[in-house]
Design a protein that fits this description.
The structure is a single chain. The chain has six helices and no strands. The chain is mainly α. It has one domain. Helix 2 packs antiparallel against helix 6, helix 3 packs antiparallel against helix 4 and helix 3 runs antiparallel to helix 5.
Amino acid sequence: MTWKSYKLDQQAQKLVLTYRDKKGVIGQSHKMRSTVAYGLERFWGEHLRLLGKNNDEEREKGKYWRETWTTFVKIMKDAGIKLPDDQVDGNNTPQVQDYAARLWALDIEDQRICLAVLTQFCDSLVWWTQRYKKAGDSDGEQ
């Protein structure tokens, strides 16, 4: 595996700046970084849980997770690894199962590369979150 930046840092900064004015949202970067250890499917699925909440702040967090995933899919496409990129309705169980199955069916080497890149991408998100967070936006985790 050789290193290419794929503008991870720039993409991360853009995401953090996009969501920085939404209370409590960019603190999700820390949760994203720890979720990488559980695999691609679990990372991807977190946006479905948050978007399904009846709370505007939680749904904004879900949008941040979804946009982070969408950006990651584009990064991996540039790296030559095609991840599923279709929108999934969290209430549609067959769609959720199909998407997860496609992630699990990836070649093991591609999975490892994806997780390595996602780890670095989330590290960049955390970095920019720490630089741009506002007072009262710590969410108890920064």
